[in-house]
Amino acid sequence: MSGLALQDISMRFDLPNGSSVQALENVSLDLKPGELMSVLGPSGCGKTTLLNIVAGFLAQTSGKLVLNGHEITGPDAERGMVFQKGALFEWMSVRENVGFGPSMKGMPRAEKAGIVDHLLDVVGLQDFKEKAVYELSGGMQQRVALARCLANDPDVILMDEPLGALDALTREKMQSLVLKLWKETGKTIILITHSVEEALLLGERLIVMAPRPGRIHKEYRLPFAEMGVGADLREVKKHPEFGSRRDEILGMIWDMEEEIMGRTEVAS
Amino acid sequence: MTGLFVLFIYVGIFVGAYLIVTRVIHPAAAKDYTSLKTVTFGDESAVRPNRWAGVISILTIFLIWGMFTGSTLLPKFLHAPAPFEGTLEFTYTAEAAGARDDATVTVIVHPREIDTDAPEVDPGDGFAKNDSATIAQWRTGLVRVDSNDEITKSDGAQVVAINGTPIAPGETVAIDNGTVTLSDKGTPNVAPSRGWQMEPLYLPPPEDVWTRTFTVINEGFRSFTLWEHLGYSLFRVVAGFLLGALVGIPLGYAMGLSNWFRGWFDPIVEFMRPVPPLALIPLVIIWFGIGETGKIILLFLAALWIMAIAARSGVSGVNISKVHAAYSLGASKWQIMRHVIMPNSLPEIFTGARVAMGVCWGTVVAAELVAAEQGAGMMIMVASRFQNTDIVILGIILIGVIGFGIDMLMRYAERLLVPWKGKA
Hints:
The complex is a heterodimer. By secondary structure, chain A is of the alpha/beta class. Chain A is built from 10 helices and 10 strands.
């Protein structure tokens, strides 16, 4: 059985004061190979916890994760992760960063160089190959992070707000790049974002999570990612359904945020 | 008094140079981007050391040093008043059995290093006879004026006036180029005027230190050459520091990576860190004596905790995203150690190394002051015992220069080896 399956994932954090927080409750999902899913939700809904569990950085308190027929128990090269920022290795050049995964596997030099060169071409950083990563702009750094993840040829790519720290214009370009890479590589991608527009644009599937306990509130199947591949994303945004979906989801999240605020006000 | 005068001169040069440089020279200087900033007060990045101020500051120190030591490097008119040298004369009035008689005292004030004989003087008439004496510069001398008189103190003669001014025991009368104080027992104590210059015993002029430098370079000091003294100190610092780093860095890594190591060594490290290494000198001497072993162990201890703490905070300072990223790129624990944690902690370790080298340099000098056969600290300690102030000053300057050099070298190595420092 191929694909990624999340079966009744629950996560409870026990706090030092004896109380506990239910971060996730019975989250179940099935992702087919090559699916691109974006995850939205108000802060505190457990999106990042969910991603960390899939990445293997956290162990769920109950439930089961299955990828391509085997259970997930810890981090592995089959699940690559792209972070918002700060995860590149400053002591390495762009080339060394991208080649990190293959190096760790002990891949022969020539083969590795081929992969790195190809990916730097794909993300358009061939001219910056020998630069130190801290000399690059934020957008370039995220392109390095994407290339580094792809160099390892993972089955699943997990993105934790990968474009969150970029300015609006760079972000738009990077969204196109993500779609292009998704189509070209056929990877399964889970992308967490705070931006409703980004979730709509980059999600073949989109789940909206609700907080306390963190759970899947609503799921959509959307045509925009497919439409956006190789197209002008601004045109996609003009699609009438795009606007109505955006307003619907914004309202939904707005209501959840209101409810949280109300609850904290009552509590305090 | 002199100190206040030095302060006035210093402040005067400070203010004067500031006015001259800013009003006359600076407006002509090239304008860079910073000069276009309108808000500079409070903008630390707009504050750069003024080159002129730096140069003038150093020159001022040497100027004042030269002024108050009568340096030959300066023209005479810049010197502070020198101590009196030459012949001074005063008369005293002796009284015995109701009779009074005057006599003249001739005092030759000579530089300390030149021995001079008291001049022959004509005894003169009356029961009080003329006297002569010699006094070295900056010194005072009791002149037993009655010893050649016909009626001596034991016969009841008393000095009652100096240069015609009545005087009693304990009182002071000013004379040309000096003062005369009558001691409790009635003997005139002559103090030739000292001027405002420092005695070479306390502060030799710059050129003396300079020439002494070459003497010490050529002849060595206490059966070791200057380079051997400095070399020994440096060797101890480097050996102690390297040993400390060799043990401290792995220890710090272990403390940053393992609960057990953290729990085990935290109390020890946290206790030893605030103990100044100097406080360990007595114990180290008791245990290991004053030889090389003791010194190197002392410096090892000085560097150990600093390096351990630097390595520990280097590990805990790693952005967890980097470690996560490395794991999901397929790195093993050892590979994460080698390729993520170690390079990531290098900037912290370099900062620690700079601090440790500074502390070690200070500690070695202090340890050598206490007891050593050779070394920079021993050199100045022994020189001070023999009142070779020029060697003491030379030693202090060399210690400062070397300490500065070590820090520069560490900064250079840091730029070379961890160019990503502060860029994360």
